[in-house]
Amino acid sequence: MMRHACILVFLCTAFASPALVSAEAKSEAKPLPVHVAEAPKVSWHYDKDELMKQLAAAEAKEGVKSASVKGEIWTTHATGKVEKVAYVFSVEEKDGKAGAVTAAEVPVPSGADTAWMLVASALVLLMTPGLAFFYGGLVKRKNVLSVLMQCFMCMCLMTILWVIVGFSIAFGDDTAGGFMGNPGQYFMLSGITSGEVWPDTGIPKILYMAFQGMFAVITPALILGAFAERMRFAGFCVFSSLWLLLCYAPVCHWAWGGGYFDGGETGNWLMGKEQAVKDFAGGTVVHINAGIAALVAAFVLGRRQGYPAKISPPHNLPFAVLGAGLLWFGWFGFNAGSELAANGTAASAFVVTNVAAAMAGLVWAVIEWVRNGKPTVLGIISGVVAGLVAITPACGDVNVMGAMILGIGASIIAYVMVAIVKEKYGYDDSLDVWGIHGMAGIWGAVAVGFLAVEGASGTQTWVQIKSVLLTLVYTGIVSFILYKIVDGTVGLKASEHDERVGMDLTDHAEHAYTMLD
């Protein structure tokens, strides 16, 4: 009979795989008992692809005839919880003699990271209803329901598109030279399971998909602030769907899916060797992307009736304040969650996010106080949002001083765009999406190049600028084409009658209040 030898490789410490725990956890880890369980039938609860790679590597060694899964390594945590962290291979040499036996490390989802990312995902989703109240309070009362409806439609429609093909375009393997991910790789979440971990993280693949999906929900919703009160609902739905797949998903792939924004070991047409964009939580992907689409919409659709002389002030500022508060609250999941782990970097991102928002709100209030004699509620919440936007791409790379600088710059730039530039040139960006999200996003994306605690340099700043320029040019052109296509098919701008009556009644046969304008 052929002989088999099993040598157990002790891969684990107190908290699962070393690659999946923080430095703090590793420093405190103590060896714990290892148990081997025979596994004639392997249940694929973890990373099957990684296991098969390890198995193939064992079989490829010189003198090895075959390798098979013999058992599993388990660890007992201090809490008494038992987890499988590796499979044991039984290897038979070609001459029939006993061969060396190896073990394949199989990543296991981290309980702490998974718990935090579930919370972070919910926080980011909450931002879209927050945006609905923020935008809804700023429009006329006859249009508030249309804004709420558009935001909630994004929560529904973008989620379905993301699950079907959006995630695959954003995070599939490079296609078309890195322009996008393979649309078929994760089509209908094929291969996205709850037990296997997403590469280089400690969270399940399905949770990573869900977290990224929340970004895909809110980004198209941001754009609607530019055309609020004058875009037909059918046109909004069609445009937003196409924009998600043709603008958001490709740019997401460039930044986070291994596309153009990462030069890697060889470089690409945009980035040199080892050059990589610092976009921790979505400066280019979310804010600049949505901001330039909003600016294009303002010019394609034209002005609202009576703009600027007969435009009413915000109909419900308390709604807007509530929305800003929910956005600030949810932004902690947006930024700190982008670390994809419960660790010190996430904590730092949390703190600098809060500091930048606070500084920006303070600066905007001071500017109004000095320039106009009185600070306003609308001003301070606008400043807060500008600060949150600016810190987004930088929150994983700057310290508190950097966050303050980002907050100051965001308020000054956004204020100038909203109060001076827009008035001078007369374009009707209804709720200042370009002035706040676009321009504060550009400031944050570029500034991280020289404010980052590690890696700040002129070269890195140029890398950041290149990513901003590509996003502006690509999304600006594609958005313009999409607006024209949708306008020529289902129609974009509401008629003068519909705009005068209000989008709540004409699009949805409802009104928010008992009295109408």
Task: Describe it.
By secondary structure, the protein is α+β, with helices and mostly antiparallel strands. Helix 7 (283-301) crosses helix 13 (458-489). A four-stranded antiparallel β-sheet has the order 1-2-3-4. A two-stranded antiparallel sheet has the order 5-6. It has 15 helices and six strands. Residues 1-46, 75-84 and 98-102 have low confidence and may be disordered. The chain is 57% helix and 7% strand.
Give a brief rundown of this model.
This protein is an alpha+beta fold and 517 residues long. A hairpin with a 5-residue loop joins β2 and β3 (82-93).
List the keywords.
517 residues; alpha+beta; four-stranded antiparallel sheet; two-stranded antiparallel sheet; 15 helices; 57% helix; disordered N terminus
Determine Rg (CA atoms, Å): 26 Å
Q: Give the helix/strand class.
A: alpha+beta
Whole-number mean pLDDT: 86
Strand order of the largest sheet: 1-2-3-4
- The H/E string reads HEHEEEHHEEHHHHHHHHHHH
In total, the number of strands is 6
Output the number of helix runs: 15
pLDDT < 50 stretches: 1-46, 75-84, 98-102
Residues in helices, as a percent range:
55-70%
What share of residues are in beta strands? 5-15%
**Amino-to-carboxy terminus distance:** 91 Å
Q: How would a textbook summarize the main sheet?
A: 4 strands, antiparallel
Principal-axis shape: globular
